[in-house]
C-alpha cells in the first residue's frame, strides 16, 4: 500500500502515506494507572415484587464496569461501609507476583472488615477480553459483581473483526427474594443444598417473563429473557410472546457439548500453547519444601524436626513482594 502511494505521488496520496507511516511507527507502551473507588454499601432493590436490602458496590446492582487496557495498572480502593466482612476477587486476572491482590477471603487476604479500606493494586499482563469481578466471601457474590473489560493495547486491533456497534457487557445472575446470606447459612447448618433462586437475571433483571416483571402467566421459569431495543429512528414493535424451547436444566451432556465449543483465539499472534497429543503417561508427584523446626519446639513436619514450607521463587525478581501494609488482618 505504501509503495503504491509512493509510485503515484498525488497530494492526497502523500498525505495518506504520512498518515499511514505515523501508524506504522512503533507505539510507545502508554500503559497507565486507572483508579476506581468501590464503596461497599447497602441498597434497597426491588425484583419480582420483593424489596430487600442488598450489599452493593456504589449502590449499583450489578456493580460498576471496570475498563482498562492490557498493560495498565488497576488501583481499586475498596471501602467497606456494611456490617459484612468482604473481599473482592478479580476473576480470571492473572496475578503475576501480585497475589496479595487476588481477593479470595481467607486465602490471599483476610476480609475487609466494617469501616476498613483495602487498595487492590495490580497490572494486567498478557490478557485481553471481558472478565468479571465479584465478592469472594460467603454468598455476597450473589449481588456484588460486575464486568472487567480489558481492551487491547492502544494501537493494537481487536483479535477479531471490529463489530459495527458495541453494547455494554451482558451479565447473567440469579435473584433470591430472601437474604442470600440466610440462604447459605441455612444450607451450612442443615447440610442440605441451598434453596434454589427465584429467578435468573440478565444484568440484574429477571426480564418480562417472570411474574411481577409483568403479567405473563406461567412459563418455563428456568428461562430469562431480555429485550434489546433500537433507539430512534427505529420503533420497537409490540413484543411477541417469546417462549423458547430450551434443554432441561439437568441436561449436563447438552451443557458440556456447548461449553466444549468455546475456544481460545489460538492464532499465531495469540497462540494457545497446549500439547495436542498424549504420547506418554506420566506419574506426578508434588514436592513441598521444609524448614527446620525452631530449637526447643515440636513441629509436625517430616521426622517431627521440620515444618512444611512453600518456596516463592529462587531469584529476587521471582519472589512475591511482602504483603502491603494495608493487607486486612483477621
Ligand atoms: C431501605 O429501606 C428501609 C425501610 O424503608 C430504610 O429504612 C433504609 O434507609 C433504606 N436503605 C437505603 C440504603 O436506602
Ligand atoms: C501500586 O503498586 C506499585 C508497585 O508496587 C507502587 O509503585 C504504587 O505506589 C502502588 N500504588 C498504590 C496507590 O498503592
Ligand atoms: C428455603 O426454602 C424453605 C422451603 O421453601 C423455606 O422454608 C426456607 O425459609 C427457605 N430459606 C430461606 C433462607 O429463605
Ligand atoms: C420454578 O418453578 C418451580 C415450580 O413452581 C420451583 O420449584 C422452582 O424453584 C422454580 N425455579 C426457578 C429458577 O425459579
Ligand atoms: C405466576 O403467578 C401465577 C398466579 O399466581 C402462578 O400460577 C404461577 O406459577 C406464577 N409463575 C411463576 C413463574 O412464578
Ligand atoms: C432430569 O430430571 C428429570 C426429572 O426431574 C429426569 O426424568 C431426567 O432423567 C433427568 N435428566 C438427566 C439428563 O439427568
Ligand atoms: C452436540 O452438538 C452436536 C453439534 O451441534 C450435535 O450433533 C450433538 O447431537 C450434540 N450432542 C448432545 C449430547 O447434545
Ligand atoms: C532449650 O531448652 C534448654 C533446656 O530446657 C535450655 O537450656 C536452652 O536454653 C533452650 N534453648 C533455646 C534456644 O531456647
Ligand atoms: C528424616 O529422617 C530420616 C532417617 O533419619 C532421614 O533419612 C531423612 O532425611 C529425614 N528427613 C527429613 C525431611 O529430615
Ligand atoms: C512424631 O511425634 C508424634 C507425636 O508427638 C509421634 O507419634 C511420632 O511417632 C513422631 N514421629 C517421628 C518420625 O518421630
Ligand atoms: C468479621 O471478621 C471479624 C474478624 O475475623 C470477626 O470477628 C467478625 O465476627 C466478622 N463479622 C461478621 C459480620 O461476620
Ligand atoms: Cu471468580
Automatic annotation (TrEMBL):
InterPro entries: Cu-oxidase-like_N, Cu-oxidase_2nd, Cu-oxidase_fam, Cupredoxin, CuRO_1_LCC. GO terms for molecular function: copper ion binding; oxidoreductase activity. Residues 41-153, 169-219 form the Plastocyanin-like domain. SUPFAM superfamilies: Cupredoxins. Keywords: Signal. Residues 1-31 form the signal peptide. Residues 301-330 are annotated as: Disordered. It holds the Pfam family Cu-oxidase. PANTHER family: LACCASE-17, MULTI-COPPER OXIDASE. Belongs to the multicopper oxidase family. This is Laccase-10. It comes from Tripterygium wilfordii (Thunder God vine).
Amino acid at each position: 500500500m505504501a509503495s503504491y502511494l509512493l509510485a503515484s505521488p498525488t497530494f492526497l496520496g502523500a498525505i495518506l502515506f504520512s498518515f499511514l507511516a505515523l501508524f506504522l511507527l512503533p507505539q510507545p507502551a502508554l500503559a497507565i494507572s486507572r483508579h476506581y473507588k468501590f464503596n461497599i454499601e447497602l441498597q434497597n432493590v426491588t425484583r419480582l415484587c420483593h424489596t430487600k436490602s442488598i450489599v452493593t458496590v456504589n449502590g449499583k446492582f450489578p456493580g460498576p464496569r471496570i475498563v482498562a487496557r492490557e498493560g495498565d495498572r488497576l488501583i481499586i480502593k475498596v471501602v467497606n461501609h456494611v456490617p459484612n466482612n468482604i473481599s473482592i476477587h478479580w476473576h480470571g486476572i492473572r496475578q503475576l507476583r501480585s497475589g496479595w491482590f487476588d481477593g479470595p477471603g481467607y486465602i490471599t487476604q483476610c476480609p475487609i472488615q466494617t469501616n476498613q479500606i483495602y487498595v487492590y493494586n495490580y497490572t494486567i499482563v498478557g490478557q485481553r477480553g471481558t472478565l468479571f469481578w465479584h465478592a469472594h466471601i460467603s454468598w455476597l457474590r450473589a449481588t456484588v459483581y460486575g464486568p472487567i473489560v480489558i481492551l487491547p493495547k492502544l494501537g493494537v486491533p481487536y483479535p477479531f473483526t471490529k463489530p459495527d456497534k458495541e453494547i455494554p457487557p451482558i451479565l447473567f445472575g440469579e435473584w433470591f427474594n430472601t437474604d442470600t446470606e440466610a440462604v447459605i447459612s441455612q444450607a451450612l447448618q442443615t447440610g442440605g443444598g441451598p434453596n434454589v433462586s427465584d429467578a435468573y437475571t440478565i444484568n440484574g433483571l429477571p426480564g418480562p417473563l417472570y411474574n411481577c416483571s409483568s403479567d405473563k402467566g406461567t412459563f418455563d421459569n428456568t428461562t430469562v429473557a431480555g429485550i434489546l431495543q433500537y433507539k430512534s429512528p427505529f420503533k420497537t414493535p409490540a413484543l411477541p410472546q417469546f417462549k423458547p424451547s430450551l434443554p432441561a436444566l439437568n441436561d449436563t451432556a447438552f451443557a458440556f457439548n456447548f461449553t466444549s465449543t468455546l475456544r481460545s483465539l489460538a492464532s499465531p499472534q495469540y497462540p494457545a500453547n497446549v500439547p495436542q497429543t498424549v504420547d506418554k503417561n506420566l506419574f506426578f508427584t508434588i514436592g513441598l519444601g521444609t524448614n527446620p523446626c525452631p530449637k526447643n519446639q515440636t513441629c509436625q513436619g517430616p521426622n517431627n524436626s521440620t515444618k512444611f514450607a512453600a518456596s516463592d521463587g529462587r531469584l529476587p525478581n521471582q519472589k512475591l513482594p511482602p504483603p502491603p501494609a494495608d493487607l486486612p488482618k483477621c
